[in-house]
Design brief:
Elements lengths: L1 E6 L2 E6 L9 E11 L1 H11 L3 H8 L3 H24 L3 E2 L3 E9 L11 E5 L8 E5 L3 E3 L6 H4 L2 H14 L6 E5 L3 H12 L3 E5 L3 H8 L4 E3 L6 H4 L10 E6 L7 H9 E9 L9 H7 L2 E4 L10 H4 L14 H14 L10 E4 L3 H10 L9 E4 L9 E3 L11 E6 L3 H12 L4 E7 L3 H10 L4 E3 L2 H5 L6 E4 L6 H10 L3 E4 L7 H16 L6 E3 L7 H11 L6 E8 L16 H17 L3 E9 L4 E8 L4 E8 L9 E7 L2 E6 L3 E6 L2 E7 L5 H13 L10 H15 L2
Parallel strand pairs: 9-10, 9-12, 10-11, 12-13, 13-14, 15-16, 18-19, 18-21, 19-20, 21-22, 22-23, 24-27
Antiparallel strand pairs: 1-2, 1-4, 3-5, 3-7, 3-16, 5-6, 6-8, 17-20, 24-28, 25-26, 26-27, 28-29, 29-30, 30-31
Length: 705
C-alpha cells in the first residue's frame, strides 16, 4: 500500500505493507480522504521543532537523558533520541471507501460494502484497518466524496449533543472553519437560531447561506451589543468555541454573550482562562467536546468493541456516524456548500505545502484527496538489502514494532551473529516499513500468519501486547517455529493450560521446538555472578525484592484491563528471578494487597527454608535511585543488586566485591535462546518458564482479592 507520513515537518508518500484487519476491524480500500487543516497542519508545525526540543521530548527531560546515558550508555541513548526525532507521523483521520475484508468478529460489514471511517486508524493511505464502531455504511457510492468529511462533521455533531439544547435555542458559533460550518448547519437543522463570528468574509458568507447571522469579531462590540443578539435581551443559551486562537480573549468574548446559566462548549484549541467574576455571576456551565462521539479514547469501545447501552449513552461515535450518513442521504447536510478542494493522493505533498503557505483567508474549508481505484495489493513488502547473513545464523522473524522491539531487541539482534532477522511484522504499516528499512530487514508485513507459512524462517520473537501472546505462541508452535516470547507468556490460567497442552503434543510428536520467555533478569551478568556465588553456599537464602512501578501515560496500552495488569506484565520479572535463584520447590506463598490494591506484598517460602519477600510498590514519580532493588542474604554473606546493572557483595558488613554491567540480560537471553535451539532441552518445563508463569498469575489473582 501507499500512505502519507510526515517526518520533521515534511510530507511524503511512502510504500508500506498492506494492513491486516484484527478481529473487530474492517480493511478498507480508500476512495477519498479528508485533510483536517487545523489538526494536521498544527501537527506538521510541531514536527518542525528544533533538534534540542525534539530530544527533550524524546526523553521527556534532560534529567532522563542523563539517566539514560548512565544506564544504557551513549550509543543506546543516541539511538533512542534519533529514533524519536525521525519518528514518522501518519496523517489523516477521515476517509471513505470500499470494504475489502472483515475481521472474524465483525458483524456490520462485509466485502464490497461502501463505508465511511474516522479515527487515527483512518489515515491518508490507499488502505486502512478501522474498528467497526468507527465505521458507518455509505448508502450510495456517489456520496463517497461527501462522506469522507465524516470526522469533521461528527466532531461538530458531538458538540451539539454535548450542549443538550432544547429546540428553538439561541446560540453562537466562534470560528467558521470546516467544523464551525458543520456546527452552524447542524444547529440550524436542529431548529436553533445561530449567530456566528469569524474574521474571514468568505467564511461568513458561506455560513450565511445556511441562515446564520454572521459578524466580524474584530469589529463587534461584545460588551455593549452582545446581549442584544438574543430575542429576550438576556444573552444566548450557548456558545460553541470552534476556533483556534493564541490568546484567551476569545473565551471572555464568548462569556459576555451567554445568558445566566448559559453553556460554553469548547471544541477548538486556545488558552482557557475564565474570569471567575464573569463565570460566577452567570453560573456558567462549561463543557468540553472531544472528537466525534462517546467512546473515543475509551479502550473498551475502541479495541474491545464494547458498546455503550443506548439507554445510558445515546450518541456514540458509531451512532453519530450513522446519523451523518442519514442526513447526507436525505440532503439535509451538504459538505459541498464548503466548496471542497479536490486533489490527487499522489500530489498530497504539494497540497500540504500549499496549505501551509496559504493565508487563512485564502485556504479552502475542505480539502479532499482522491485515490486511484485500481490498486495492486502486496501484503508483504520486500526490500533490497546488501548485508550478507552469517553462514550459521538462524533465520528469525520479529513480530512487533513497539518501543521495546525497536530499541532493545532489534539493536541486539543486529549485533548477534547467531540470528538473521529475515522478516518484521507489525500492525502499523508505516512503522513496519520504517523499521525494516532502518534495520535492513528484507521482508515486512502486517500479517504474522504469512510469516508463519514461510518454511525458511525457523524462529520467531514475539514482542506484541500481552493479550496477544498466547494465540501467537500457539500459532507459531503449530507452524513448527522456535519461539521466544516477551514476558508474560500469557495472562490467565486457561491460556497457560492451552500452551502446556501444545507443548505436550509437540513432545509426543517428537518435534524439538524451543519455547523461551523474555525473563531477561536471570540472564543478566550480575545475576549469573550471584548464582555462582550462591552455589558455593548451600545455606538457605533470604531475599528482599523491591519493585517500583511508575505511573503510565493515560493512552498506554499497558493500562487496558484486557492486557492483564502490571503485576502480570512487569512484576513477573521478580517472581521468575526469585524462583530461578532459589531453585527449590515452593512450599507456601501469601499475598497482601497494599496501597488500596494498587500494590502487593508477597511472601514465598521454599522447601529448603529459603524465603523471599517481594514488595510491589507503585509510585507517583520514579526516585533517583533504582527501580528494582534486591537484597540476598546467605549466612555471613549479603549481596545487593540495583536494576540488575550493579552487584555488591558484603561479608560481615564489609564490601568485598563490586560488579557493574550495561546489560540487564537481553543480549544474553538471545544467546540462551540460540543455544536452546541448537541443543533442545528435555522435559515438560526445562527452563521453569511455565512454573513461574503459573505462580505469577495465581499471585496476581490473590493480590486483587
Amino acid at each position: 500500500m501507499q500512505l502519507l507520513i510526515a517526518r520533521q515537518g515534511k510530507v511524503d508518500v511512502v510504500t508500506a505493507p498492506d494492513p491486516a484487519p484484527a478481529e473487530h476491524e474492517v480493511l478498507i480500500q480508500t476512495y477519498y480522504s479528508c485533510i483536517s487543516p487545523g489538526t494536521e497542519l498544527q501537527a506538521l508545525s510541531q514536527q518542525s521543532l528544533s533538534v534540542g526540543n525534539l530530544a527533550r521530548r524524546a526523553c521527556r527531560s534532560w534529567d532522563k537523558v542523563k539517566a539514560s546515558l548512565s544506564r544504557r550508555g551513549w550509543k543506546q541513548t543516541l539511538a533512542r533520541v534519533s529514533q524519536a526525532i525521525d519518528k514518522p507521523l501518519t496523517l489523516g483521520y477521515s476517509l471513505s471507501g470500499r470494504v475489502l475484508k472483515s475481521g472474524d468478529a465483525v458483524h456490520s460489514f462485509g466485502p464490497g460494502d461502501w463505508v465511511a471511517a474516522v479515527g487515527p486508524w483512518a489515515g491518508h493511505g490507499t488502505m486502512a484497518c478501522v474498528p467497526q464502531k468507527f465505521c458507518a455504511p455509505v448508502p450510495r457510492p456517489e456520496m463517497l466524496g461527501d462522506a469522507a468529511s465524516a470526522a469533521l462533521a461528527c466532531t461538530a455533531l458531538h458538540a451539539t449533543h454535548r450542549a443538550e439544547l432544547p429546540a428553538g435555542s439561541e446560540v453562537a458559533v466562534f470560528g467558521l472553519g470546516s467544523i464551525g460550518q458543520f456546527a452552524v448547519e447542524i444547529l440550524r437543522l436542529s431548529g436553533h437560531q445561530v449567530v456566528a463570528f469569524d474574521p474571514v468574509a468568505s467564511r461568513r458568507q458561506t455560513a450565511e447561506e445556511t441562515g446564520a447571522k454572521c459578524y466580524d469579531p474584530l469589529a463587534f462590540d461584545f460588551e455593549q451589543t452582545g446581549a442584544s443578539l438574543s430575542s429576550h435581551g438576556q444573552g444566548l443559551d450557548a456558545v460553541f468555541l470552534c476556533a483556534k486562537a493564541r490568546s484567551s480573549e476569545l473565551v471572555g468574548q464568548a462569556i459576555s454573550l451567554c445568558r445566566k446559566r448559559g453553556r460554553l462548549i469548547i471544541v477548538g484549541e486556545f488558552p482557557i482562562e475564565i474570569s471567575r467574576e464573569q463565570a460566577y455571576h452567570k453560573e456558567l456551565v462549561v463543557r468540553f467536546s472531544a472528537a466525534y462521539g462517546e467512546g473515543r479514547y475509551d479502550p473498551a469501545y475502541e479495541y474491545l468493541d464494547q458498546d455503550y447501552p443506548i439507554e445510558f449513552c445515546r450518541w456514540t461515535v458509531e451512532r453519530n456516524l450513522r446519523l451523518f450518513m442519514q442526513w447526507l442521504d436525505e440532503g439535509r447536510l451538504a459538505p459541498s456548500r464548503q466548496q471542497p478542494q479536490l486533489g490527487k493522493f499522489e500530489k498530497a505533498p504539494t497540497i500540504y505545502q500549499d496549505l501551509l503557505n496559504m493565508p487563512t483567508a485564502e485556504a479552502p474549508l475542505l480539502t479532499l484527496l482522491e485515490y486511484n481505484e485500481l490498486l495492486i495489493q502486496k501484503p508483504m513488502l520486500r526490500l533490497v538489502t546488501h548485508s550478507a547473513p552469517h553462514p550459521n545464523a538462524i533465520p528469525l522473524a520479529v513480530i512487533g514494532v513497539g518501543r521495546f522491539a525497536t530499541e532493545t531487541h532489534l539493536p541486539n539482534l543486529s549485533q548477534n551473529t547467531g540470528f538473521q532477522v529475515a522478516a518484521i511484522v507489525g500492525r502499523q504499516p508505516a512503522r513496519v516499513a520504517r523499521t525494516a528499512a532502518r534495520f535492513k530487514i528484507p521482508l515486512a508485513t502486517c500479517d504474522y500468519k504469512q510469516i508463519l507459512q514461510d518454511k525458511s524462517i525457523a524462529s520467531v520473537l514475539i514482542a506484541t501486547p500481552h493479550a496477544s501472546h498466547c494465540a501467537q505462541v500457539l500459532d507459531a508452535m503449530d507452524a513448527g517455529k522456535h519461539v521466544l516470547v516477551e514476558k508474560p507468556l500469557c495472562i490467565n490460567l486457561d491460556e497457560l493450560a492451552l500452551i502446556e497442552a501444545k507443548l505436550t503434543e509437540i513432545r509426543r510428536a517428537g518435534r524439538d521446538q524451543a519455547l523461551f520467555v523474555g525473563f531477561n533478569r536471570r540472564f543478566a551478568p550480575v545475576s549469573q555472578s550471584l548464582l555462582r556465588a550462591r552455589e558455593k553456599h548451600h545455606a538457605p537464602v533470604e531475599i528482599r525484592y523491591e519493585y517500583l512501578t511508575p505511573p503510565l501515560p493515560s493512552g498506554e496500552w499497558y493500562n487496558r484491563p484486557e492486557q492483564g495488569g502490571r503485576f502480570i506484565g512487569e512484576v513477573c520479572h521478580a517472581v521468575d528471578w526469585i524462583l530461578w535463584l532459589v531453585g527449590a520447590p515452593l512450599a507456601n506463598c501469601s499475598v497482601t494487597p497494599s496501597l488500596g490494591g494498587a500494590g502487593a506484598d508477597v511472601t514465598l517460602i521454599f522447601n529448603d527454608d529459603s524465603r523471599a519477600h517481594l514488595h510491589h510498590r507503585p509510585v507517583e514519580r520514579m526516585p533517583s535511585g533504582p527501580k528494582e532493588k534486591v537484597e540476598v542474604s546467605a549466612g555471613e554473606n549479603r549481596w545487593l543488586i540495583e536494576d540488575f546493572l550493579c552487584l555488591r557483595q558484603h561479608r560481615h558488613d564489609q564490601l568485598i566485591h563490586e560488579e557493574h554491567s550495561r546489560s540487564k540480560g537481553h543480549r544474553e537471553l538471545l544467546d540462551a535462546f540460540a543455544a536452546a535451539i541448537a541443543q533442545p532441552a528435555s522435559g515438560a518445563d526445562p527452563y521453569g518458564f511455565i512454573a513461574s508463569s503459573r505462580l505469577v498469575i495465581e499471585l496476581a489473582s490473590k493480590a486483587k482479592g
